[in-house]
Amino acid sequence: MTTIDYAKTALVVIDLQPGIADRPTLAPHAGETVVQNARQLIEDFEAHQGFVVLVNVGVTDGQDQLTPNLGERTPDYRQPSPLLNTRLLAEIANYKNAHQITKRQWGAFYGTDLDLQLRRRGIETIVLCGISTNIGVESTARDAFEHNYHQIFIEDAMTASTAIEHQHSLQYIFPRMGQVMSTTTFLEKV
Asked: Domain 6-60+79-188 adopts which CATH fold?
């Protein structure tokens, strides 16, 4: 049985913004399902005075984003464009105590104050959710692991471009770094 110490646990929500969460091709969970489950988690953290971090991705002029050399291959993901709507979805944007971070790459640690804000609050455990499971969430999780945070991954509050990508992270990557559970299981604190 897992007990959640909200004084030492933060919820980190990745990239729930227009152009990402409203894509019709997300799998295995629709964006609206992920947003609904993330809202439940945010409300739970707020009710327990827990720390909530809402992360969005954005670029200003295109010069501040990564540009990997992929050779002849066309990338199977879309780089954020300067036209990407970086505001958070209205369903999650108005929580008064949430800390907001804009990242310029996949993970939420590099180039942001995420680690600083977590350490100042004595956070030891991160609950992760958002889009995309195998990109933004997994990149953040890998950095969190290297920063020695305990982690909980909320399976039905994240999704990817394909069910295979989502499942790969859940089956092979996340169990090496923390616990995987559903929104319901987390909210029941089991």
From this structure: Rossmann fold (3.40.50)
